[in-house]
Amino acid sequence: MREPKPRCNQKAFASEDIENVCKFGAMTAVALLLLCCFAIATHASELNIPATVLAGSGLTIPSSGSGSATLYVSGPGTAIKRKVQLGQAIQLSGGDLQNAGRYVISLDGDSATLFVTAGAVQAMAFLARPSRVPADTPNVISGTAFVFDRYQNLVMQPQPVKFELSVNGETVDRIATTKDGVAYAKLDSSKKEGAAQFTASSGSASVRRVVQEVASNPCNIRMSAEREKNGILVRTDPIRDCAGNPVPDGTIVTFTSTDSQGKSTVDARLKRGIAEAQLPPSNNATISVASGVVVGNEIQWRGER
After folding, report:
1. Fewer CB in a 10 Å sphere around the end CB: N or C, the chain?
2. Cα separation of 96 and 100, whole Å?
3. DSSP letter (8 states) at residue 292
């Protein structure tokens, strides 16, 4: 007869096993919690930066935690990789953030976006067209201004630009507002000829250009005629434009004589404001004078036979 095998206390075994498992699980959970807290305390950092800063103003980034981390900064013309200590303020200098545009800053797994905007206007590019214009002409001079900050960033915010044209004590000005960094204006030339000082200014920036204003088309051409040994001598009065400015020497003046023999034409250039020429002899002729599209007086010439 077989002896019965001793039986285990299944209830006691199961209770003790469960208790051990529970103790082990609790210890493991506590260990993991402590490990996570230690890791967070050692390396955690919260990236807190403003949405925008002015170019060249620099930036202070607060950080938390402890230990070292790597800072990355990327933006227009900028790429920075730098070892930093967590728990200390991280400094970016004005030189690091002097180009306007969008930057991405990353630290210890956190990233944020920063926009650098242009500062106050301190420089300007100014185009004046044309360099030589007729006097007393409307909307003939144009000026275009581009405004920049000290780091040559185009200032995109609207800025007032003053355009001023001055010649012979006569001054006209106009104020325009920039759009996307550019301002444009058109001005009339003055009534008197001369070297006009054309200036554009905004903020602390001012640029000057010179536009030469010259006499416009001749106006009210008058001439006289007199007999000469070999023909007819014709001569103009001093030729001026409609504003009274002397027409430049070298301007061509055309004299025409028409009689029964046909038509004779002579071109002459102004010299000291006067043009003169010799026409063929005639006993009965119509003499006219013109310069460009401007026609002067006519003379009915009656010569002695």
Report:
1. N
2. 11
3. T
Decide: 186 and 193 in contact? Cβ < 8 Å.
no
Residue 130 CB burial class (10 angstroms; 0-12, 13-18, ≥19): exposed
Q: Which residue has the tokens 């001055």?
A: 166
Single-letter code of the amino acid located at 137:
T
Helix (H) or strand (E) holding 12: helix 10-43
Q: Which residues, 6 or more positions from 293, have their beta carbon under 8 angstroms from its beta carbon?
A: 217
Q: What is the pLDDT of residue 48?
A: 85
Q: Which of 301, 269, 266 is nearest to 287 (CA)?
A: 301
Rg of the Cα atoms in the chain:
45
User: Residue 294 pLDDT > 50, yes or no?
Assistant: yes
* pLDDT at residue 292, rounded to an integer: 86
Tokens of 269: 């250039």
Share of the chain above pLDDT 90, in %: 69
Domains in the chain, ordered, with CATH?
A: 52-117 (2.60.40), 123-214 (2.60.40.10), 218-302 (2.60.40.1930)
- Tell me if the pTM is above 0.70: no
- Burial degree of 203 (CB within 10 A; 0-12, 13-18, 19+): middle
Distance of alpha carbon 126 from alpha carbon 147, whole angstroms? 9
Query: 227, exposed or middle or buried, with CB in 10 Å at 0-12, 13-18, 19+?
Result: exposed
pLDDT of residue 217: 86
Please write the tens of the pLDDT for every residue from 155-174: 999 999 999 999 988 899 99
What lies within 8 Å, CB to CB, of 122 at 6+ separation is 148, 149, 150, 203, 204, 205
Q: How far apart are CA 251 and CA 49, in angstroms?
A: 69
